């Protein structure tokens, strides 16, 4: 009989709470015996009641908390939120507070599905946690209209301490020379940075890149371009990637310059992408000695779906110009960017040359010697060709022998130099007066002999750059071998 009476009383209290759950004060006062209502905050006689909670501003006992949790969970379920992950999380005292949190997140742009992806965000106080974090994010450059997008990408930020966790990361980025106006852009690209420890992966990855030759002043632009490398472990990701490229014959100094300009290549998967693409290049006839030059010219080639692109371009050039596999390999070695060119772009310069009377065989020779022709604007080629025929009056065979003519600026190089030659009545090949710097041209122009032509720079795997030209050079033109390779390749 006694057990039955207790059960009925408990049921009655729960029913009363369900009827009045929207009024917290009523929940508190009506669920206590009369004697206990006189001293609601006494902890000596009634240890089951705690002091007022700073977070929720409500005094509740264990039973009342359980009832409130059930009511809040029922509310969350009714709007489509799964509260399973909230079991160990302290929830607000009333369903009204929870409703306010959900509405606030909705105003940010988060949907029910977004909340279900990370339901723990419902345990964060709007006043104490969410608003201070969002205010700081807006202060450092994240637009208010994109705050919801940022929270979707990294909802854990809502529980972070602005002073203890967020401010130190921002100061670290500024210390790497990331521009102040780029901080928001960097964090939008990689919001997980806000959760990293400063003395961990971020510091070690920067230190390693500097140790292989990356200029410390370029770390900031690198972070802006590809901040993900700050989260890469040196031992398992960055160092194996660097060691593999060095083993192919790429000097560390050149690799450092590549990483400064194309930091995103660090994100290429070494086993699944980079090594497969290197093997693919070798299978298409690219010599192992030429691999460093190919990679230096076009680092992106390491991350492309290369086999399909090479097969497509090889078939196209063979169909158009009867270029055999060996010729195609030489084209790739001299201009690897051709793998990414659209075929309709390649067709226009080819059709222009064919329409001017060049045979298919001659055009094929020109493309193999100077693949850059396929990337030129036809209008520029027209201007250069008409000047060559009308003003210079030279035979077309010279263009077959030196197709690089089309790559030079008509107004700034070809015309001025040709006028100088004509005034001095000097007869020479196209390569002799075009394929040199302005200073070297002056030296040639006032020299007592015609300097023999050179075939340009060559690069041997594991060795230094070798220039197959005369030793005559001015002091201003001297530069290191590695810098010469980088200038002549990556600058393309």
Average pLDDT reading: 82
Can you count the helices? 26
Structural class: mainly alpha
Largest sheet: 2 strands, antiparallel
How much of the residues is beta strand, in percent? Answer: under 5%
Strand adjacency order, main sheet: 1-2
Alpha-carbon Rg, integer = 36 Å
Number of strands: 2
Characteristic key phrases:
mainly alpha; two-stranded antiparallel ribbon; 492 residues; 2 strands; elongated; disordered N terminus; 26 helices
Notes on the protein architecture:
Helix content is 57%, strand content 1%. The chain has 492 residues and is mainly alpha-helical. A two-stranded antiparallel ribbon has the order 1-2. The longest helix has 18 residues, at 2-19. The model is unreliable at 1-13, 19-59 and 456-492 (pLDDT under 50).
List strands and helices in order, with pairings.
Elements: H1 2-19, H2 24-30, H3 34-38, H4 62-78, H5 95-108, H6 112-117, H7 126-139, H8 147-153, H9 162-175, H10 183-189, H11 198-211, H12 219-225, H13 234-247, H14 252-261, H15 270-283, H16 291-297, H17 306-321, H18 325-334, H19 343-355, H20 360-369, H21 378-392, H22 397-401, H23 410-424, H24 430-434, H25 438-445, E1 457-459, E2 465-467, H26 481-489
Antiparallel strand pairs: 1-2
Helix pairs in contact: 16-26
